[in-house]
Amino acid sequence: MRSWSIPLGRFFGIDVRLHITFLILPLFVFWTEYAAHQGSANAGSDVGMVGIILACVAAHEAGHILVARRFGMIPKAVILLPLTGVTLFDESRVEKPRPDTPVWKREIRLALVGPLVSLVLASVAVVGITATGRGIELWKWPFLQAANLPRSLVWANLYLAGLNLIPAYPLDGGRILRALFIRTMDPSAAARRAVSISNAISMVLMVAGLFSDSWLTMVGVIIFSAAQLEERAIIFQSVLDNVRLEEVMLTDFATLSPADTLEDALEKAVHSLQDDFPVVRGSDMVGVISRQRILDALRAEGNGYVQAVMNKIFEVSVRQDSLGSAFRKLTARSSSIIPVVDDQRLVGIVTLQNLMHSMTLLAESRRLRRNEPEG
């Protein structure tokens, strides 16, 4: 998520990020306007055009998010691209769809909301501009032009509505296609097939743009970039669902005793790469404590005992639990360590740091294996 995007801030509890293709868009708009006006362009109008496109995409994606919330899907982050957005949901809080609403039907309804929002915004823009008495020459070519920002506002929404119906995932048309695939295959396989079709469509658009309108090339690049984001998310989800904790848990780790002083615990922490420690009495695990908690307690209260400041409420997993299960347990309690037990015996630990590192490596490994030529 962070590799090809920059943060814009947090709005209504959702992390909003801007994909790098949005940084290319101002240059592309300037170049096309410069060519169209035979060597002249207005930088202010060009920036205004980019701002309009960003606002239209944000509104389009906001429609998806609002309806997703009604289905019990809690968004935690969204990446905005010049045509669409990629929303990441909190898997630990997603409610199961009602029996009378199959997943594929829910997905189709969610997909159709985006174009509908764009069409409504275009209609509102036409009514609002007409009410001001301004003539915007709505049907004058080129429809999208920095020199006429009111007309561009209308057509930016119309283009978004139309382009998002292309059956290229993760555009809304591609999401509908994936939903139809879900009827006969599991969601992961359906998404992979939709991404493959999306990649083919993006290549056709990029090549077609070289011989006709350069905007087609830009659309192809955006679709390809969005498909890559979704493909990485699919692989990441596959790792979460299929990898067991016994494959990634740390088996060589340091423990603390509840009778250890905080100064002794800090000394052990200094000589360990761990940020979090299980607290063990005999063969029983009685708590967990972090390096930061040890430091905070020493600064606030001076030297004491681990038992007094350790967290006595913690989640436990077993070897056969999936990474996804561990990740949900960590995020649900905002904790950073999960002990792994076997017959009530501590056999390993999984920390948030170790989990994210393992997930990233496993996802990249699976992506590389998928890209290896057969034979």
Q: What integer value in Å does the Rg equal? A: 26 Å
Instruction: Please tell me what the overall shape is.
Output: elongated
Main sheet? 4 strands, mixed
Question: How is the largest sheet built, in terms of strand order?
Answer: 1-2-3-4
Poorly predicted runs: none
Roughly how many Å apart are the termini?
Answer: 32 Å
Order of helices and strands: EEHHEEHHHHHHEEHHEHEEH
Percentage of residues in helical conformation: 55-70%
| Total strands | 9
Structural class: alpha/beta
Q: Which range does the strand content fall in? A: 5-15%
Mean pLDDT level? 82
Count the DSSP helices.
12
Folded structure, characterized:
The chain is of the alpha/beta class. The protein folds into two domains: 5-240, no CATH class; 246-361, Roll (CBS-domain), CATH 3.10.580. 55% of the residues lie in helices and 14% in strands. The chain has helices at residues 21-36, 43-70, 103-131, 149-163, 172-182, 187-211, 214-242, 262-270, 291-301, 306-309, 323-332, 352-371, and strands spanning 5-11, 14-19, 75-80, 85-89, 276-281, 284-290, 317-318, 337-342, 345-351. The strands form three sheets. It has a four-stranded mixed sheet with strand order 1-2-3-4, sandwiched between helices. A three-stranded mixed sheet has the order 7-8-9.
How are the secondary structure elements laid out?
Layout: E1 5-11, E2 14-19, H1 21-36, H2 43-70, E3 75-80, E4 85-89, H3 103-131, H4 149-163, H5 172-182, H6 187-211, H7 214-242, H8 262-270, E5 276-281, E6 284-290, H9 291-301, H10 306-309, E7 317-318, H11 323-332, E8 337-342, E9 345-351, H12 352-371
Parallel strand pairs: 2-3, 7-8
Antiparallel strand pairs: 1-2, 3-4, 5-6, 8-9
